[in-house]
Design brief:
five-stranded parallel beta sheet, 2 domains, single chain, alpha/beta, seven-stranded mixed beta sheet, Rossmann fold, globular, disordered C terminus, 9 helices
Length: about 325
Amino acid sequence: MKNGVYTDYKLFACNGNPELAQEISAILEKPLGACKVSHFSDGEISVSLGESVRGADCYIIQSTSEPVNDNLMELCIMIDAMKRASAGRINAVIPYFGYARQDRISKPREPLTAKLVADIISVAGADRVITMDLHAAQIQGYFNIPVDHMIGQPTLVKYFQQKEVKNLVVVSPDHGSVKRARSFAAGFDAPIAIIDKRRPQANVSEIMNIVGDVDGKNCILVDDMVDTAGTICNAAEALIKAGAVSVSACATHGVLSGPAIERLEKSPISEIVFLNTIDIPQEKRIGKLKVLSVAGPFAETIYRVFANEPLSPLFEEKESTK
């Protein structure tokens, strides 16, 4: 650091998303720092830094996806190791923030787990968090440190703009994604439709109604994540029954747990697109599944944070190419 400004920065990666970390490293032309993250035979996690971080501006790239608790602990232990090694600033780059769906108390005696995890990361010693498409935007306020909340939608919009889909309707699979669908549709000057559903219990959804005209249309379902794929597949079936010609889908985070892949294979969805905020294993990459990289946006964000440059240009709406 010179005159209060960092003169260099270091990138490190845990085991949560090594492929994305390598892509970010290549774009920034900055090799990943030497570190070893391993497990003892009883499951305890061991972290060892192989180089000095004293006074350095450090960026730890780690998605807290499956195995969620192991990846969260890896991140926190890495943060603690850097704090005790006198790192100048510790930035947690969390492409996918686990526990984000537990962001409110909906009935008595429930925990507010998203807030708890935010506190854990802060107390561990992180000075800043860089993440993408939190399940609920207000989670940014759960942290007592700066949070840079990136948006994955421009990457998805650009992909579908290149396909030049005709007679398009953008569909929100539930009321919670209406704002996201409206913003997505703006990139195509397309109308939106909304799936009205109820959820009788966790990971179980039931379609009730479709608000909007989808008859004879090509539909794109837009969500922030797909977990067991029940919501997205039920929505696709409802759209086809309502007269939709085709149904594609996209989401930032491909959690894809439990029966998700089997459901997607059997569903009428012709193509489903995710970003690589979560490392989707090859055995889950079925023919209709496509993964786009967000290494570029993350690399630019990291560099701008290091250089004390504004992030606002990354969030400015790009004009539709339609």
